[in-house]
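To: structure subgroup
Subject: Chain for Friday's discussion

All,

I'm putting the inputs and outputs inline so they're searchable in the archive.
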Amino acid sequence: MPFARLAHATTPTCHIGLGLAAVGRPGYINLGREEDLGEDRSVDALRTRTHELLDAAYAQGVRYFDVARSYGRSEEFLAGWLSARPGVDDVVVGSKWGYTYTAGWSTDAERHEVKDHGLATYERQRAETDALLGERLDLYQIHSLTPDSPALTDKDLHARLAEAAAQGLTIGFSTSGPAQADAIRAALEVTVDGERLFRTVQSTYNALETSAAPALAEAHDAGLTVIVKEGMANGRLAAPHAPKALQAVADETSLGCDAVALAWILRQPWAGVVLSGAATVPQLFSNLHAPAVDLDADQLTRLATLAEDPRAYWERRGQLPWH
C-alpha cells in the first residue's frame, strides 16, 4: 500500500499533505481568495503558483499530494511538476473521480462541477487521469460519496475498482455532507470476493464539523488510512474569520489560527494525513507549524465548544460563493 511510504517518514510534517483544490482552478469557495490569488488567475499563473507550492511543500517534508478531476487543471499541474523532477520518487499521489469540472476556467460559471458516480464516468475519468499521471497515481478515490450514492451498490463498478486494486492501485473514497458518518459506515461494508474494497477514506473534519469522528475512528480500526480534508473549514478557521475562542488560543501559542486548527486535528489518533489547502507559500509555511503546537487540556476544552450542528455547518458551506 503506498501509504506505507509515509509510515517510514520521520519529519515533523509527514502527517500533513497538500491538496490542490484551491489552486488548480480560478474559482473556489474558500474565503479570502481575492487576497490570496489576486487578479491574474490565468492557467500559466496558477501553474506557476502550484509548482511553487509543491516545491515548498516537498522541501519541508510533505509527501502526500491530493488532486481531483474536478479541481480544474490540478492533475495537469501536478503531472508537470513530477515530470520535471524525476528524482522525486518518494511521494504519494492521490486523485479523485466522480465530478466533472464544467466552469471552463471561469469564476462565474452557472455550474462549476457536475457529479456522477456511474461506471461510465469512472471509465472516462480514469483514462483522463492515467493520461496525465500514469504510473505516478497511487490512490484513486470516489469523490464525495454520500449514503445515497449508486457507487455503494453498483457491483459492476465494484468489480472494475477491484481490478484496479489487483493491479496495484489503492482504492478509496471521500465524503461530504451532514451524513458523512453514514456514508463511511456503508462503504466499510462494501466487499468484492470477501475482501474490503476501500483502503482509504477522506472526510471533512475540523473544529466546526466533528460529526464524522466516531465513524473515522471505526475506519481507522478497520485498517483504512484516514485523510482529513477541509481542516480550515474553507477559510472560516483562518484569520481574520476565525472564531474568538480559536483566536484566543492562537494568541496564547504565538502561532496562527490555521496552525492551531490543524494541530487540533493532528491530535486525533485516527488521523493519518491532514491536508493543507494553502493557496500561497506563506500560508503553507504557517500551516506546517501545526505539528509544533502543544495544546493543553484547557485549550482543547475551549476549542471543543466551536462544534456546530452538522446540518447547519453544511448549509452554510453550501452558501459560500465561488470566488
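Points worth raising on Friday:
The mean pLDDT is 95.
The two ends are 37 Å apart (CA to CA).

D.
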